[in-house]
């Protein structure tokens, strides 16, 4: 990932760890805006949506992760 997107992504991870889910979503989306090929940001966004039982958004995020990295077995599993 690009340096700017990586730093925003790390803020998303920190927010998630602190329980600030809405900020985590915002940071992961911003990281994707900065680097549309950021597989980990899509995966983590999907994981949050899944936890929120927002399955349609989760599936879209996991599918994008798989599209970008067809060998991402974790994202493939989540789509199942």
> What is the helical fraction, as a range of percent?
over 70%
Give the termini separation. 26 Å
Apparent shape: globular
Unreliable stretches (pLDDT < 50, length at least 5) are none
Mean pLDDT: 96
**What's the main sheet like?**
none
Overall number of strands: 0
Structural class: mainly alpha
How many helices? The count is 5
Radius of gyration: 12 Å
The helix-strand sequence is HHHHH
Range of strand content:
under 5%
What does this structure look like?
The radius of gyration is 12 Å and the shape is globular. The protein has helices spanning 3-17, 21-34, 39-51, 55-68, 73-79. 30% of the residues are buried. It is mainly alpha-helical and 80 residues long.
Give the tags.
single chain; 80 residues; mainly alpha; 5 helices
């Amino acid at each position: 990932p690009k340096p700017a997107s990586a730093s925003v992504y790390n803020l998303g991870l920190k927010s998630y760890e602190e329980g600030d889910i809405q900020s985590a979503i915002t940071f992961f989306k911003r990281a994707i805006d900065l680097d549309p090929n950021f597989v980990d940001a899509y995966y983590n966004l999907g994981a949050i949506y899944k936890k929120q039982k927002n399955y349609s958004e989760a599936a879209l995020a996991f599918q994008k992760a798989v599209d970008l990295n067809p060998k991402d077995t974790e994202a493939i599993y989540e789509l199942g």
